[in-house]
Input
Amino acid sequence: MVTALIEHRVSTSLVDVEKALGRWRNGSHSALAAHGAVLRHAARCERTVERVTAAAGDRPEGILRDAVDAGLLGAEEFVQLVGKQPAEVESIDSLRDEDDASAPDKKRTLEALLARGPVLVHVDARRSEVAVPPRFSADASLVLRFGHNLSPAIVDLTVDEEAIAGTLTFGGQPFRCILPWTAVYAAMVEGEQRGTVWPEDVPEDVLTGSADSGVAGPSPVQTSAAPIAVVAKDEQSGKKRASHLKLVE
Output
């Protein structure tokens, strides 16, 4: 059943890949956009394998519950095997939406990065749940700087299960920014050469290089094949800092 559940998730994910490749073949999708779909598929399947194999030893009932949800096992057969109704057994979330699945990983990653220094967080500010100054709200590749010992200090910096948030200063004006994990797709410690990217969350138009920053000046993010190259613009100096992001596996 472990193998069947993983194969089911891989198969459903491959449907999205096939659609992206089909659009690439007919010219309506760029090669980078198709490549992005492949990256999202790989990350999605990797997480499914991790969740299912981790549960195989201590939560086999949860695997069977997910098998029922996937249509791989009938409810009556489940009751015969487990002695409970499917609703009475907690799911292992092997079929969970990837936005939700990535949140704990992003929280842990940001906490670890912040312990090393200021962090540049890449966010799709177009998402309705994102709170940033209005002039940045149309920016698909906005880069914001968070840290524990900055000047001015971010006294209300929080990293919780839902988002990273804090009051940042823009042109001398404070604004409380809230970046839900669903909108965050990359992060790196300032000054380091490598960072982290969640490929399934990178906006398609950022992958293709067609994203409009929505503000004057060049977009702060440029993309290429993995590792994805990121260029963060320093608002004070106007210069760009080049770095590389590694794929989350």
Observations:
- The first strand starts at residue 119 and ends at 123.
- Residues 31-58 form the longest helix (28 residues).
